TrEMBL record, chain A:
The keyword Kinase does not apply. Keywords: Signal. Gene3D superfamilies: Periplasmic binding protein-like II (3.40.190.10). InterPro entries: Bact_solute-bd_prot1, SBP. It comes from Phycicoccus endophyticus. This is Sugar ABC transporter substrate-binding protein. SUPFAM superfamilies: Periplasmic binding protein-like II. It comes from the Bacteria. Residues 1-22 form the signal peptide. PANTHER family: ARABINOSE-BINDING PROTEIN-RELATED, DIACETYLCHITOBIOSE BINDING PROTEIN DASA.
Automatic annotation (TrEMBL), chain B:
Belongs to the binding-protein-dependent transport system permease family. GO terms for biological process: transmembrane transport. It is found in: Cell membrane. It comes from Phycicoccus endophyticus. It is a multi-pass membrane protein. This is Sugar ABC transporter permease. Its main location: membrane. The chain crosses the membrane at residues 31-56, 87-112, 124-143, 173-196, 226-245, 278-301. It holds the Pfam family BPD_transp_1.
Length: 454, 310
C-alpha cells in the first residue's frame, strides 16, 4: 500500500512538473484588443510604445493633441522594450490590426517595410511643406528607409560617444582628444585605473542589445563585420579576433570587475558614483550624467566614439513611429504621427516639460533652438556632430548588404547576436578560448546569412 | 460474542458496503467530474496544442512561411547541441539548491524548534525570503549582495582584505545556486519544522534516559522520523526549482553553464521567435522531466529507505 501511494505521489509530482513546463512552452502572447471604433467623428487611436522617458512625456502631452483635434482619443499602451517587440511583432505580423500606431526601433523598420507591414509615409510627408521632412537627420532617415521609402519617422535618435570624468583624467595628467583611437583610450584607462575606480566601464552583459551594441562598433572599426557583401559570415576573421581580444584585454586591465553583470544602467551608476572614469556608450547617457541630481554634473568631458581604422565608429539607433498597414484609421494615425514628430511638438516639450527633456537626435532644427542649446550645452554639439557624420550604409571598412550600424537588419540577428554574446561573455570570463567562441558564432551567423543569399 | 455472530455481522457489512459503494462512487464521480474537466481543459489541452505547434514550421518573423514540417523541429532541437548542456545545468542547479536548502532548512528548523523569547518573530523573519517574488529576490541579490562596488558580500571581502569576487562573471552557477538556496531554505525549514513539532517528546525523553547524547538522539531518532518530511521537501523543491528562470535571466543571462531548460525555452520562443522549435524543446523537456521524476527520484529515495528503517 505504501509503495503504491509513493508511486502515486511520484506520478503526481511528475505530472505537475510536466504540465508546468508544458504551460511554460506554450505561453502565447495574449493581448486584449482595444476598441478601435472609428466611425465618423469619433476616432480612437491605439498607440503601442516603449517605456522611455521621452515616450512618457508624449503621453503627458497627448491631451494637447486631443484638445486641438476634438473627437480624437489617443490610447497609449506603454510596455517594456522586450514586451513591446513581442506584442507588436505578433500583432503586425498577423495583421490583427490592434494598433494604429506602433513604436519600433531602427532595427525593425527596414525589415517590416520590406514585408509590407507598414504604410509608406514618403508621399504624405513630402507633400506637407510645414512638416519639413528634409529636416530629419539624414543618417536617422537612412536607417528608416527601405527601397527609397520612408516607413517610419524618428521620434528620437542617439549615437554613441566616449564620456570621461575630466577631474580624474586631469589629475592623472591624461588628455583625450576630440577623436581618440581605441588604443589611446585603453592606455588612458590603464593609467587612471585604481583599486577603487575602474579605468573604463564597458557593457559585458550578454545580449544583442547589451554587449553587442558597443562591441559590434568596435569590431567594425577594427575592420571586421558580421557579413560581407554576399551574406557570407565573417566572424572567424583576424579582425574579429583582434577586436574581441582587445575588448577583453581592456576589460581585464582596467574595466569594471564584474563585466557580465554590466550594461547601460550599471555603467551609468558606476560613473555617477565615481566607480569608473570613462565609458563609451549611448549619447543619451550624457543628459543623465549632466542631470541636476548627478554627482558628476559639470565634471564630464565628451569625445567621439574611439576608432581604429574608420573615421567614425558611433552607432545609430532611433525609436520611431510607424503605421501598420492593418490599421483602419490611416489618416487619423498619420496626423498624430506628424504632430508627435513635428518641430512644434519639440517646442511644446521644451516649454511644457523642460528643454533638457526634448527628444534629441531626430531633427537638425532641434540643435538650433537657443533654449535647447543652452540646456544641453555640454553634449548637444557633439551628439549632433556624431549623428550627422556616422554612415549607416557602410559603418565598417568594407561594404555591407544592409543599412544599420550596431546590428544586422535580418530577423535572425536577435537570436544570432544573443547566442554570440553568450559565447563572447564566456570568453570574457575565461571559460572558453576566443577561437572556440568565434568559431561557434561563425557557424550560427552563417546559418542565418544563408537564408538571405541570392 | 460468539464466532458465528461475528461472521454474520461481517458478511452483512460487506454486502452493504458494496451497495453503498457503487452508489457513493457514482455520486463522487459526478461531483469530481467538473473539476477533472476543468483540469483537463486547463492543462492537457495546452499540452496537446504544444505538441501540435512542435510539428509546425513557424517563425514569427517569417509569417508567410508556415506549414507542417513533421519531426524536423525535434531533429534540430536534438542536434543543435544546446539541449545536453542545458540538462546538465538544470540538474546541477536543482540538485545543489535543493540539497543546500535542505541542509540549511534543517539547521534552522532544529534551532527554531526550541523555546525562546521572540520565537514567533524569528520564525516570521526566517520565512520572509520565500515570500519575496523571485525576480525581486534576484534583483536584491544582484545589487545589494553580489555587486562589486556596492554589494555587501564584496564590502565584507574588502573589509577582511580578501580579493573582490565578480560573482556573475566568475562563478555564475554558484551565484544562481546561492540565490535559490536563500529562497528555498525557509520552504524546507517550514516542512521540517512541522516534522519536528510532530515528534513524540516521550521518545526523546526515553532516549535521554537511556543515555543517548544529543547527536545520537538526532541521527538515530529525529532523522529517521524526519525522513518522510525530507522526501516531501526534496520532491516539491525539485519540482519548483527545475523550472527556475528569474535568477538566470537577471544574474547570468544563461552564461557559464546556467542555461536551464526553462531559460533555453524562453530564448527559443521569445528571442529566436521560433514557435515550432520552442514547442519541440518544450515537449522534449516534458519527456525528460517525466523520466527524471519517475526514475531518478525513486532510486534516490530507495537509497534513503535502505539507510534508515521506518
Amino acid at each position: 500500500m505504501r509503495r503504491t501511494k509513493r508511486a502515486l505521489t511520484f506520478g503526481a509530482g511528475a505530472l505537475a512538473s510536466a504540465l508546468a513546463l508544458a504551460a511554460c512552452s506554450s505561453g502565447n502572447v495574449s493581448s486584449d484588443s482595444g476598441s478601435g471604433g472609428g466611425d465618423g467623428e469619433n476616432v480612437t487611436l491605439n498607440l503601442a510604445t516603449v517605456n522611455n522617458g521621452q515616450m512618457k512625456d508624449m503621453e503627458k502631452l497627448k491631451s494637447e493633441y486631443e484638445d486641438a483635434n476634438p473627437g480624437t482619443t489617443v490610447n497609449f499602451q506603454v510596455m517594456e522594450e522586450g514586451d513591446l517587440r513581442a506584442a507588436v511583432t505578433a500583432d503586425v505580423a498577423s495583421g490583427a490590426g490592434q494598433y494604429d500606431i506602433v513604436t519600433i526601433g531602427a532595427y525593425e523598420t527596414p525589415q517590416w517595410g520590406a514585408n509590407g507591414w507598414l504604410v509608406d509615409l514618403t508621399p504624405d510627408l513630402e507633400a506637407d511643406s510645414s512638416y519639413d521632412v528634409d529636416d530629419l537627420l539624414p543618417p536617422v532617415r537612412d536607417v528608416n528607409t527601405y527601397d527609397d521609402k520612408l516607413y517610419a519617422v524618428p521620434f528620437y535618435g542617439e549615437s554613441s560617444i566616449l564620456m570621461y570624468n575630466k577631474e580624474v583624467l586631469d589629475k592623472a595628467g591624461v588628455t583625450i582628444g576630440e577623436n581618440p583611437t581605441w588604443q589611446e583610450v585603453a592606455a588612458a584607462a590603464k593609467q587612471v585605473n585604481t583599486k577603487k575606480m575602474a579605468g573604463i566601464c564597458m557593457r559585458g552583459k550578454p545580449g544583442w542589445g547589451d554587449l553587442f551594441a558597443p562591441l559590434t562598433t568596435v569590431v567594425q572599426t577594427f575592420g571586421g563585420n558580421w557579413y560581407d557583401n554576399d551574406w557570407n559570415a565573417t566572424v572567424d576573421t583576424p579582425q574579429w579576433k583582434q577586436a574581441i581580444t582587445f575588448y577583453k584585454t581592456m576589460l581585464d586591465d582596467s574595466g569594471e570587475a564584474d563585466p557580465v553583470s554590466y550594461s547601460f544602467n550599471e555603467c551609468l551608476t558606476a560613473l555617477k558614483e565615481g566607480k569608473a572614469a570613462m565609458w563609451a556608450d549611448a549619447s543619451v547617457a550624457a543628459s543623465m550624467l549632466e542631470a541636476d541630481d548627478s554627482p558628476v554634473k559639470g565634471k564630464m568631458g565628451y569625445a567621439h566614439m574611439p576608432v581604429v581604422e574608420t573615421q567614425e565608429s558611433g552607432w545609430l539607433w532611433s525609436w520611431n513611429l510607424a503605421i501598420p498597414s492593418s490599421t483602419k484609421q490611416q489618416d487619423a494615425a498619420l496626423k498624430f504621427v506628424k504632430w508627435a514628430t513635428s518641430k512644434e511638438y519639440i517646442e511644446l516639450v521644451g516649454n511644457e516639460i523642460g528643454w533638457s527633456n526634448v527628444p534629441p537626435g531626430s531633427r537638425t532644427s532641434t540643435y538650433e533652438i537657443p533654449e535647447y542649446k543652452e540646456a544641453a550645452a555640454a553634449y548637444a554639439p557633439i551628439t549632433l556632430d556624431v549623428m550627422s557624420s556616422v554612415n549607416p550604409k557602410q559603418p565598417g571598412v568594407d561594404p555591407q548588404p544592409w543599412v544599420g550600424i550596431q546590428y544586422v537588419s535580418i530577423p535572425e540577428f536577435q537570436d544570432v547576436g544573443n547566442q554570440c554574446a553568450q559565447l563572447v561573455a564566456d570568453y570574457i570570463a575565461n571559460r572558453t578560448s576566443v577561437d572556440d567562441a568565434l568559431g561557434k558564432c561563425q557557424s550560427l551567423a552563417q546559418k542565418a546569412g544563408d537564408a538571405h543569399k541570392g | 460474542m460468539s464466532a458465528t455472530e461475528l461472521d454474520t455481522v461481517e458478511a452483512r457489512t460487506a454486502t452493504d458496503d458494496k451497495r453503498v459503494n457503487t452508489k457513493e462512487l457514482r455520486t463522487a464521480r459526478g461531483l469530481i467530474f467538473p473539476a477533472v474537466l476543468f483540469l483537463i481543459l486547463l492543462t492537457q489541452v495546452p499540452f496537446l496544442v504544444t505538441i501540435g505547434f512542435s510539428l509546425v514550421r513557424w517563425n514569427l518573423l517569417y509569417p508567410n512561411d508556415r506549414g507542417f514540417t513533421g519531426l524536423s523541429n525535434y531533429a534540430s532541437a536534438l542536434s543543435s547541441g544546446d539541449l545536453w548542456p542545458s540538462i546538465v545545468a538544470t540538474v546541477l542547479i536543482t540538485a545543489f539548491s535543493v540539497v543546500l536548502s535542505v541542509v540549511f532548512g534543517m539547521l534552522f528548523a532544529v534551532l527554531l524548534d526550541r523555546q525562546f523569547v521572540g520565537r514567533a518573530v524569528a520564525r516570521t523573519l526566517m520565512i520572509t525570503p520565500f515570500l519575496v517574488m523571485p525576480a525581486a529576490a534576484s534583483l536584491i541579490w544582484k545589487y545589494s549582495m553580489f555587486d562589486t562596488n556596492i554589494g555587501m558580500l564584496n564590502w565584507l571581502a574588502r573589509t577582511l582584505h580578501l580579493p573582490v569576487v565578480s560573482w556573475s562573471t566568475e562563478h555564475p552557477l554558484m551565484t544562481v545556486v546561492i540565490v535559490l538556496t536563500w529562497q528555498f531554505t525557509p520552504f524546507m525549514m517550514l516542512i521540517l519544522l512541522a516534522g519536528l513539532q510532530g515528534q513524540d517528546k516521550g521518545i526523546l525523553e526515553a532516549a535521554q534516559v537511556d543515555g543517548a547524547g544529543t547527536w545520537r538522539t538526532f541521527t538515530w531518532i529525529t532523522l529517521p522520523h524526519l525522513r518522510m518530511y525530507i522526501e516531501i521537501g526534496v520532491l516539491l523543491g525539485s519540482v519548483i526549482i527545475i523550472q527556475v528562470f528569474d535568477p538566470v535571466a537577471i544574474l547570468t543571462k544563461g552564461t557559464g553553464g546556467t542555461k536551464t531548460l526553462a531559460y533555453l525555452l524562453y530564448e527559443r520562443a521569445f528571442i529566436g521567435l521560433d514557435v515550432g522549435q520552442a514547442a519541440a524543446y518544450g515537449v522534449v523537456t516534458v519527456v525528460l522531466t517525466l523520466i527524471v521524476a519517475t526514475v531518478a527520484l525513486r532510486t534516490l529515495f530507495k537509497v534513503f529507505m535502505a539507510g534508515g528503517s521506518r
